[in-house]
Amino acid sequence: MRCVAPTVSAALSVRAPSSSEMGPHSDVAGTLDATDRLMVVVLDAFGSYTWRAVKELTPCFNSIHAVHGATIDSVMPTITPVNFATMLTGASPASHGITNREQPLTLETIFHVLRGEGMHSATAARTLSSLGILISPHADMPGIAASNTDDEVTRIAVQALEGEASLLWVQLLDVDDAGHAHGPLSREGHDAASRADSNLRKILEAAHREGYSAIVLADHGQHAVENEGRVQGTHGTDMPEDVSVPLAWANNDELGDIG
Q1: Is the model's pTM score more than 0.90?
Q2: Domain tally, the chain
Q3: How confident is the model at residue 34, as a pLDDT?
Q4: Phi, psi angle pair for 238, to nearest 5°
Q5: Separation CA 175–CA 237 (nearest Å)
Q6: 255 near 213, Cβ under 8 Å?
Q7: φ and ψ of 240, to 5 deg
Q8: What percent of the chain has pLDDT over 90?
Q9: In this structure, what are the phi and psi dihedrals at residue 134, rounded to the nearest 5 degrees?
Q10: 173 pLDDT exceeds 70?
Q11: CB atoms near residue 239 (< 10 Å)
């Protein structure tokens, strides 16, 4: 996860945030070298374990991953605010100190770097999400879905892509919500994966129209637990189901071939 901010920086031809602890993902940076506009979509809790179980329901994600795909690891603990802070700063949890979405993120983010270069950043996030609360205040154009739904986040993202941002960061939460309530491999979890893929398609189609390249990944995965006879989902551990996440990317020309 520490490679995300340096990779985004390399793609947009700016320096990495000052607290970054490693270099960019060479394959991603090579493909997206010197792109003018970039979008990052985070499918919350869509870990490799879950993806393998729902692949027949995620043709859009499958398609972009088939263009360029890899697997990376979340940082510990495998929870959303910790990993979002690492994504945006390139710093480990020990350095950024974030343990919950209510804390202030004090390290330099990729948004700050872009602002220093005269470039603009935007977000599309639920009002109660980690991207909405922890990260969006640092963006030039924070897009907040007051309804706290992924459908509104998708509309905000499509609208933002028509604007002037060099970088748009999006978080879709349906998979995480359904997994927590019913288990990641439940019928409800499968339905959520299908909805997330449909929203991803709308966003990627708009990105292609507006000249953006794209990176799509998860912040963490999720595993099932039984609680008083009821299956639910959780994460935060070093289990492979929580740690391993898929990473996919495509330049703008390649997005036109996403089926």
Answers
A1: yes
A2: 1
A3: 87
A4: -95, 15
A5: 18
A6: yes
A7: -55, -35
A8: 97
A9: -85, -40
A10: yes
A11: 16
Is the model's pLDDT at 259 over the cut of 80?
Answer: no
What is the 3 state secondary structure string of the chain?
A: CCCHHHHHHHHCCCCCCCCCCCCCCHHHHHHCCCCCCEEEEEECCCCHHHHHHHHHHCHHHHHHHHHCEEEEECCCCCCHHHHHHHHHHCCCHHHHCCCCCCCCCCCCCHHHHHHHCCCCEEEEEECCCHHHHHHHHHCCEEEEECCCCHHHHHHHHHHHHCCCCCEEEEEECHHHHHHHHHCCCCHHHHHHHHHHHHHHHHHHHHHHHCCCEEEEECCCCCEEEEECCEEEEECCCCCHHHHEEEEEEECHHHHCCCC
Q: Which tokens belong to 95?
A: 């350095």
**What would the pLDDT profile of 195-228 be if each residue is shown by its tens digit?**
999 999 999 999 999 999 999 999 999 999 998 8
**What are φ and ψ of residue 141, in 5° steps?**
-130, 80
Q: Which two tokens stand for residue 258?
A: 């996403």
Domain of 19, CATH number, reads 3.40.720.10
- Domain boundaries, position 173: 4-255
Q: State the Cα–Cα distance between residues 139 and 91, nearest whole angstrom.
A: 18
